[in-house]
Amino acid sequence: xxIGVDLDDVVAECAVPYLRAxxxxxxxxxxxxxxxxxxxxxxxEVSGEEKDRFRIALYDGKxxxxxxxxEDCPTIVxxxxxxxxxxxxxxxxxERRRVVTETWLREKGLIQHARAVHLKPHGDFDPGVPPxxxxxxxxxxxxxxxxxxxxxxxxxxxxxxxxxxxxxxxxRVWLFDHTWNRDLAHPNIxxxxxxxxxxxxxxx
Length: 204
Ligand SMILES: [Mg+2]
Description:
alpha/beta; Rossmann fold; 2 domains; six-stranded parallel beta sheet; binds magnesium ion
């Protein structure tokens, strides 16, 4: 099988460290709930513009190089590759983040199991969306286009709009379960809680 694999909140926990850094920066108390991207969306004390500036500054710093892969991810990725499946890391991170992304994938023992690493080219960003704004629509288009070009059979994803777009394009999606995607259901979508779950699905 040819399998696309998203990075943030699929290979590594991203939303929670993001929120902790955000709360630190704006001196906010995070609510006592399962933290996720929905938590950020509900924070009204900080304007959209400030959120965008924070995102750019954070991503320009050491954030991506400090992320931790989910504990079972490297072992399972290795098993999937050893079973003969082709893994393509496909992230909506901007192409200019390639060095930090590939260095991290190498450090974590992941890159050698992948056929390729794809980041979102500049031309795939929607010029109408402010820089730094999370733009799931153009990311969904980018990932669907790539999934077709690479003739992927399946995709590991956590984002609702991206997962739905891939599923509607006929690609099988393993949806990594998170608080923000609980309501999503589609015949092409199978929800998995962990990489170990995915290993069971794939029989590896
Ligand atoms: Mg993601």
